[in-house]
Amino acid sequence: MSGFGIYVHWPFCAAKCPYCDFNSHVRTAIDEDGWVDGIVSELEWTAKNQTARPPVETIFFGGGTPSLMSGKAVGAAIDKIARLWRMANDVEITLESNPASADATRFRDYRASGVTRVSLGVQALNDKDLKMLGRLHDVAEAKTALGMAMDTFERVSLDLIYARPEQTPEEWRMELKEALSFGTDHLSLYQLTIEPATPFATLARTGSLKPLDDDNAATLYEITQEMTEAAGRPAYEISNHAKPGEESRHNLLYWRYGAYAGVGPGAHGRLDIGGKRIATMAEKLPERWQQAVSRRGHGIVEQSEVANDDAAHEHLLMNLRLAEGIDLAAYAARWNTTPDMVRVAELSEQGFLKTENGRLIATPQGRLVLNRLIAEIAA
Ligand SMILES: C[S@@+](CC[C@H](N)C(=O)[O-])C[C@H]1O[C@@H](n2cnc3c(N)ncnc32)[C@H](O)[C@@H]1O
Ligand code: SF4
Hints:
The protein is of the alpha/beta class and 379 residues long. Helix content is 42%, strand content 22%. It has an 8-stranded mixed β-sheet, sandwiched between helices. A 3-stranded antiparallel β-sheet has the order 9-10-11, with no helix packed on it. Strands 12-14-13 form a 3-stranded antiparallel β-sheet. Helix 6 runs parallel beside helix 8. The two termini are 22 Å apart. Iron/sulfur cluster binds next to loops. The site of S-adenosylmethionine has 17 residues, from strand 2, strand 4 and strand 5.
């Protein structure tokens, strides 16, 4: 087993970025105390729902934009968790932060509340592309925010979105070189995805936005693998790169198919209760979630047992995202099934998979087409 973590979703943003399909909403006035009361109620319900409460190894405040929360609000959620569960001594507590709402005093408050790690959404290192991405910050503000984060926290990660329209390999090399020069031990480098039902999807359909084609995007992906590896921050997951030992433990927990509780609007959970794998999903719309929480103490709209085959499939899909791959014996013991080893052999021949010391690993090429690989090898 891979430990237990708690995800807390803060669903608000100052503006909606046109590429984003996260559960994030813009509201003119936010009653922070009311939302924190809702989170606290849902934490209480979650703790009651778990028959055995494992120690909390990681907490992740994601969004939306959790850096719009005050230190007091973040502290209230952490204190509640510490009262309801045992906390591991070296608990990792990450907060996602947007450069436009980054503030030195607030960063210090987060740290005083127990936050140990900040992940900063820089997205691009040129003003033209930041504007194209609809971001509220410019490069200068992103650098100031990064400096503040690195002054306050030992563990800082930065996010960039690459494979942007018209981005050339040379431009990406320069930009990634600069990003690596900041010296953060962790970087999340995502290829721009045109998500359905976003303004970018409409622009792509009408031809006003021309997504980078697959070949060029693959070239930028290869550059990303090479440069991060040379800088001592190799990919440990499709889009995540870290100095060994500095991986996001919370995200590793997801990818190793550990157990986690999801709290807040739209949050998902995977809990182990009474020997069963239980999936939970909360009401997405913040106001509806809040109404549900005040009525019955939680906003969970679905709680169901994950069938063995589905859980095995999820485990394979999550674990193969990681460069370390999956321990085949542990997988077989847990789910009483194995991948289709004949297809595994064929796909290994083609360079998409490899087996090393009992672990099945997707190569960097394989990780790019993971969903298709899983569909072929799942038993
Ligand atoms: C919840 S956001 C991070 C925190 C904050 N909301 C922000 O944007 O700065 C998570 C990350 O997902 C990435 N992301 C969101 N939508 C994306 C898309 N369509 N394509 C690629 N990356 C995306 C961005 O890099 C973003 O930083
Ligand atoms: S700030 Fe982050 S979560 Fe909010 S809309 Fe933009 S990318 Fe999405």
